[in-house]
Amino acid sequence: MAGDTPTATSGGEDRSRFTRAEDSVTLGAVLEVLERFYPPDTAQSWDRVGLTTGDPEQPIRRIHYAVDPTLAVVEEARDAGADLLLTHHPLLLRGVHSVATTSAKGATVTALVVADIALYSAHTNADVAWPGVCDALASACGLDRVDTLTVEEGADLGRVGDLTESISLGDLARRVASRLPATAGGIRVSGPPGAPVRRIAVLGGAGDSLFDAVRSCGADVYVTSDLRHHPALEAREEARGGPPYLVDGGHYATEYLWLADVSTRLRSALAALGDAGASIEHHVSTLVTDPWTFTVGARDLADVLGDSAASDV
Asked: Nearest CA to 65 among 80, 87, 82, 49?
């Protein structure tokens, strides 16, 4: 193709395959970088990660980042002029038999194709990556050094580490709330507010399948989300009121922090490809895709502390 002249680099590498005649980085080049960060073969067997819409040869000049590929997020990406929408959650995780606009998923696919927006998802392969979703959540909790919580299907899942000094469960909950995006559900906590905690296990997204691993690692508290009634109640019963305590930050919120990390890493890696990569614009969506809108009658920390003070009288 005219204009596809190989570009000389200091190392003698031919970088022509990364650009088109318009001197833009291609989607294929972006995906090469992403799949080095988050290899698709490290995703869980039930997962569906990778490219959903898009042409590997299309030029990429603006990347939009979001947790969920909702209709509102796609509209935001379209209005911003994005060429690539990178999400954590896949659009087509479960089988569909039609992409007619009569369904939400069909309307989303159509909107992406009509707007020429590529959609790519890094889901459980981003959960297990180093660094990945769990590392962003661990950092929000104040952990600098972490180890693997458990291994599933040969991949590291979850993180566990120690704070430099113990803090109260209430203070940890406040810290998590201050660093996660606000949602209707807020932060749910199980355990006495004044209980000291130092060793923290984390898993972004749904985490009530890992209680055995949390107990085995000796964690004082488990920060995750989507804790269902029966598994959470049984875990607290097994703890006899002691650790591990539970902090449920909400599915969307506990995974949102990863977006800033991947956008920073991808920006740096693409800039190394030259001026075309450095000129790509990056935008992390602030649309809250948590499905809940508001709560009524929630019992918060002040209520618990008030009850505790009253019981001491």
From this structure: 87
